[in-house]
User: Which sequence fits this backbone?
């Protein structure tokens, strides 16, 4: 410490060399940690994408399997189902309508509800469409039950799907993260318990 | 370093969430299987105990992976609702739980899944004849004379289908060249109905027993012809078997009614005719007031080309002519028909009742408890 005129003291600061050393050390640390950071970041992003597609895939399959089990039959199409027609990429299920108490009831004539699963290719989404009879309390809706859908295939245990009692679903989800595509394809089989 | 640690922690959280989701998904599926096991077990027990089974309140364990608890709610004497809840790994501390409900009924089940199901003779539809329901033909579906024939539903044929012109099928496309489908097998029901009718007593007719007054009929075996006429309103109390050298069944006059007793509820009862069925002079057959309705099923074993003839009649009944031809003409109206061949004349109509998809018959010792189609569902309120 130096005492200068008028009683002021001057404290010793960092010299230019010391500053250069500190900056150099910080740079060195940054250089050493950057690859670790980048590795973790890419790992995080990719794993996140993998988890995302797997979750989408599993939840969508569960939904379809449960609905198929509850369906009475597969129909080619229905009056209000247009333009959807049962095939390898679209499934039209006929189910009993639901009463005010939430319980299904046996319809008269053609008073059934219909559930349609199909892929919206333009948005890569799996769509569930619910069409209700006027006497049914099942809410009509169009819901997205999975995103990032690459393909959806239905296979039936009869050449004529309307006669089938079992459906095998093959769903593939795909998501691109940091130039790497995460793909998951799973298969599930469901029996129409009400047929 | 802090950023790396945060990312790592986040990634670890995501992975653990994903693993938990996967495990839950598997457990939910296991719980569904447990619930299904409970349902099947209950149906088995109902059959074993002739319907007197009461499920235990405690859970029934299946190995170490899970358990189920079932309850039974009586709707009628022949209809029960079974609620089965599956638990993984147990009901005390469940990690996954699924509940399934289904109605089970007692009786001889028979599936009339189509408004019309015919054998190799096929269906021939003439002008303005209409089938409101699905059609399955092991032959072809052809257009007779005229046009404006309609099938308001889907149509399958092992042979060809004259559609879209002139037969309009409202749920296209038609299904020609389909695989043959056997007709519903009613041999056990016929056998049981004959036994039940015979047990009610035998009446010998020479040659025709004629019912002209209001009253009850059946269970009864008639040897000879049976005719109901004179605008009588007759209630059918049990199976009827018309047999003998001729063994034909007639109804005549417009207000003559043969009604199935409402006490049968949703159960159907058979009227067996070894000769022909002739409803050309009027008369009507009526079901019960149950929900779904119980129907009279007229069965003929005749091989005649006119085994069943109906015209100008509103017969809300099921007709079965396995080896013969059924002929509907003019304003005839029928609920469901199974025959070797069907010929539909002008303006005749078939109005299918979807309740026939799981028709139930009362007679016979072979009655069993079984799942009622359409009632199986998941529920969030066990």
Assistant:
């Amino acid at each position: 410490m130096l005492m200068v005129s008028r009683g002021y003291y001057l404290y010793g600061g960092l010299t230019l060399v010391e500053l250069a050393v500190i900056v150099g050390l910080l740079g060195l640390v940054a250089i050493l940690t950057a690859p670790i950071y980048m590795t973790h970041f890419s790992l995080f992003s990719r794993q996140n994408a993998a988890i995302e597609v797997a979750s989408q895939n599993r939840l969508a399959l569960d939904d379809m399997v449960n609905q198929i089990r509850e369906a009475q039959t597969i129909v080619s199409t229905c009056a209000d189902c247009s333009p959807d027609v049962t095939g390898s990429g679209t499934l039209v299920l006929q189910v009993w309508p639901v009463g005010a108490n939430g319980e299904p009831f046996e319809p008269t004539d053609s008073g059934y509800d219909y559930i349609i699963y199909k892929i919206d290719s333009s948005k890569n989404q799996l769509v569930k469409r619910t069409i209700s009879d006027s006497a049914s309390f099942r809410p009509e809706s169009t819901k997205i039950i999975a995103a990032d859908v690459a393909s959806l295939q239905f296979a039936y245990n009869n050449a004529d799907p309307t006669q089938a009692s079992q459906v095998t679903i093959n769903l593939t989800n795909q998501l691109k993260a940091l130039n790497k595509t995460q793909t998951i394809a799973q298969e599930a089989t469901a029996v129409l318990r009400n047929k | 370093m802090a950023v790396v640690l945060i990312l790592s922690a986040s990634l670890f959280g995501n992975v653990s969430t994903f693993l938990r989701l996967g495990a839950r998904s598997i457990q939910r599926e296991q719980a569904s299987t447990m619930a299904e096991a409970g349902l099947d077990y209950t149906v088995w027990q109902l059959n074993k105990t002739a319907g007197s089974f009461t499920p235990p309140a405690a859970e029934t364990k299946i190995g170490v992976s899970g358990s189920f608890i079932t309850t039974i709610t009586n709707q009628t004497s022949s209809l029960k609702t079974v609620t089965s809840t599956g638990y993984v790994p147990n009901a005390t501390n469940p990690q996954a739980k699924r509940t399934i409900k289904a109605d089970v009924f007692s009786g001889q089940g028979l599936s009339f899944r189509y408004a019309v199901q015919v054998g190799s003779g096929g269906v021939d539809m003439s002008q303005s004849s209409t089938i409101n329901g699905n059609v399955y033909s092991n032959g072809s579906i052809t257009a007779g004379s005229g046009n404006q024939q309609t099938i308001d539903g889907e149509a399958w044929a092992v042979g060809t289908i004259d559609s879209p012109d002139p037969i309009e099928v409202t749920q296209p496309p038609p299904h020609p060249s389909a695989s043959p489908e056997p007709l519903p097998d009613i041999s056990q029901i016929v056998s049981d109905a004959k036994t039940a009718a015979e047990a009610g007593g035998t009446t010998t007719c020479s040659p025709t027993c004629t019912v002209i007054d209001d009253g009850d009929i059946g269970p009864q075996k008639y040897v000879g012809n049976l005719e109901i006429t004179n605008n009588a309103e007759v209630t059918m109390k049990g199976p009827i078997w018309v047999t003998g050298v001729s063994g034909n069944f007639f109804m005549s006059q417009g207000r003559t009614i043969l009604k199935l007793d409402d006490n049968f509820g949703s159960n159907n009862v058979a009227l067996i005719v070894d000769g022909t069925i002739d409803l050309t002079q009027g008369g009507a057959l009526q079901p019960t007031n149950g929900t779904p309705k119980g129907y009279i099923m007229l069965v003929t074993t005749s091989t005649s080309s006119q085994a069943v003839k109906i015209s100008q009649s509103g017969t809300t009944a099921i007709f079965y002519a396995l080896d013969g031809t059924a002929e509907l003409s003019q304003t005839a109206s029928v609920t469901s028909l199974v025959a070797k061949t069907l010929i539909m004349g002008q303006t005749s109509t078939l109005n299918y009742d979807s309740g026939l998809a799981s028709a139930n018959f009362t007679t016979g010792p072979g009655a069993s408890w079984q799942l009622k189609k359409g009632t199986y569902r998941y529920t969030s309120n066990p």
